[in-house]
Sequence to fold (734 residues):
Amino acid sequence: MEYHDFVRSKLSRFSRCGFEQSIQSAHLFDFQRALTEWGLRVGRCAIFADTGLGKTRMQLAWADAVAKHTNGSVLILAPLAVADQTTEEGAAMGIPVRHLREPESFTGIAITNYERVHKFDVSELAGVVLDESSIIKHHDSRSFATLTDAFAPVPYRLCATATPAPNDWTELGTHAEFLGVCSREEMLAEFFVHDAAKTQDWRLKGHARGAFWEWVASWAAVVRNPADIGFDGSRYALPALHVTQHTIKTEMEALPGQLFALDASSLSERRDARRLSIEGRVAECSKLVNETDGPWVVWCELNDESDALTAGIDGAIEVRGSMSLDEKEAALDAFRHGDARVIVTKPSIAGFGLNWQHCADMAFVGVTDSYESYYQAVRRCWRFGQQKPVNVHVFASDKEGAVVSNLKRKDADAKTMAAEMVSYTAAAVRRNIVGSIVSTNEYETDHASGAKWDLYRGDCVEVLKSLPAKSVGYSIFSPPFASLYTYSNSPRDMGNVKDDAQFFKHFGYLVDELARVMQPGRDVSFHCMLLPTSKTMDGFIGLRDFRGDLIRAFQQRGFIYHSEVVIWKDPVTAMQRTKALGLLHKTVRTNSSMARQGIPDYLITMRAPGDPIERVTHDDYSVDKWQKVASPVWTDINPSDTLQYRSAREHDDERHIAPLQLEVIRRGIELWTNPGDLVLSPFAGIGSEGVVALELRRRFIGAELKKSYFEQARQNLRNADAQGDMFGESNAVA
Fold:
């Protein structure tokens, strides 16, 4: 593959696999038709629309079009009791939908509950719809694994939910993987950075934010109001929502060492507080509900709460986990059709997919920390189409803290996240794009020079292609450490990769050019380290032999493994910075099999094959200096012996710039070059290798892709020139 083709292949790409279909339905509003037609063009897509915007009708229209286009079958998976609701909606639209409780052959559209999917052979399906697809948002859940594996062969797939990622953006990765866009791990590698201090936390790379949302927009549409995508949203105004907290006094014993009982903080303490306050919370809620005549939804978390509420509220019916699927469906339908005034259940059972706009009053007799669970439960009644203000009553123990304020904080965070999603994805629906969406990235170049140096802003592979063959006497550099350090969103950035395989393919193009430009018998030195693995990305905690992989990349192109030196690093400093499990002293006490040593740096030197055009000779290289350099371990390298680099940092940089120490560079250049030799750094950074080369009366050529680094390197090289002039040297070669 030509290099230009490879770079283009690194651009985030999602090839659409759908078909053009105009939807002519009087049962869809204009924005619903637009979203459905967009979903058909994409083929495998997600519609993240708010509750009440008609996801059910869009799903049905999409499924109907797929079934007719393929003359095949489409299966809709839905939460419990949503199936009957969906079949009724389909009948109103003139779209027949079969509600299957047991597997049978069908053509057209059928619907079943998630709980029954294991019974079905999905190998012959043309399409699948996941209604309330947030069921797959947890990458380690059984639902995600089961559904992703089962429906991987299905050509057309649609996910629909109002809450695709209520906690963090990484949860979008499970939807992308289910749809066949890419794996969650690939998404994390390309767009996210691992927070070393919090081993389970991932956050968007600052410079990747725009590219990430462009990528999401290629397969997902986020809509909170039709106005988000350019349609009239005036009819979609939610009624008022009133949330009231009822605090129930709880008699709890003080813990040892306490004068009085404090607020419950741990999960177990809060559970205890809830259990001790059941009687009071149930009594208060039952009294409130019994004093009214209208319908109520009463949510709870514990079976004891459910039993007591059902007994205490006149005419209440209960839906609990131990009931059969048919019993649950019957009870939920009874409430939906008005045959029961009050329903008592859990958000985990009935908090998704159901439309209960006939009800405007609900109570939470116990609330979990799951914002999604709370939000979805509230939205069963508080949704577009609701004609009354919705009243939510939260009954909590006085030891559980400010439950409502905590939920309001999470609600504000969720609205901020949703607004960001909308701002980046809405344009994709409006643009009416057919085919592939490819993220583009501008490629800019620049050049600066002095008497004995040239610095190029640009792709190092492209820069080396412009150099004469066998022109470089020595090369020293610190490459990106695969995806551990990503410096920009450019596809030309070697650190901007999906995985190690892509990194080494990219790196191979550079080594090919190094093999061409290096003089025979001369040396290339690179700085590297072993790389830690993570359970999330690699499935285990350990080390990757990145050092060995780099060596082999050179050997495959004819270079000779010449030498290496270990550069000592303080393991205590590394532990404080990374909080790595293997370096924590407590690991020795708790699970010493996981304890390890710190990870040093290496300076690896590879030699180009052949006899040198000119030997490197040193008449004045002292024995003392040689003994220090010849040591296989350098313990005297000061980690702070670097050029000033703070001004080169950009706001979006996720990692501190860590230039190679000047003494390491100095020892390499002194040992392996003659005065006047051309020293090359393909990753010039802020110009450390160039500054030392000029100091030692060598010539220098460097390449740097990142603009801020290039500008800092240019200034550092000019300063080196000025310093040489000050001492009357002008970096001239004798």
Remarks:
- The domain at 241-401 is CATH 3.40.50.300 (Rossmann fold).
- Confidence is low (pLDDT under 50) at residues 254-262, 432-440, 730-734.
- The first strand starts at residue 13 and ends at 15.
